[in-house]
């Protein structure tokens, strides 16, 4: 059974993180919806290093759907744009209330999740320069932190994006798919 993941994007998002999440999960057979959180409603996104992305839809079209994971890329000021998107905030709060997974990498654990009180007493990490902003969280300076009880997975940045994304696949499909995917992507170091 195909799982569904929402990947919100906005101007100045970190492109390595966004594309790695999208690509890895689609390789695993996941239905990934890339939704723009641009204030003007545009689905055209210029990422932090000038890479242009085309979202599937504006975030406003995602409010009636349910997702197994909502996975936030980071980057600055992209994470601030995600933080300031009320529709995304409402989706994240609902996701947590329903007991579904939330994932964030780089600046987004601090700038988005902690800002909105979604990391209270939850083990989490963020880019090293944002560790001090993990307000309310149990901050852990590790490349990847999974809080199984809270259903929150966080990671540190572009260099950890592949491991983060493979672990999203592991959460969705289990160890066998994780190993097959890592092997197919020549990511033996992740095993």
From TrEMBL:
InterPro entries: Class_I_gatase-like (IPR029062), DJ-1 (IPR006287), DJ-1/PfpI (IPR002818), Prot/Nucl_acid_deglycase (IPR050325). It comes from the Bacteria. Residues 3-170 form the DJ-1/PfpI domain. This is DJ-1/PfpI family protein. It comes from Kistimonas scapharcae.
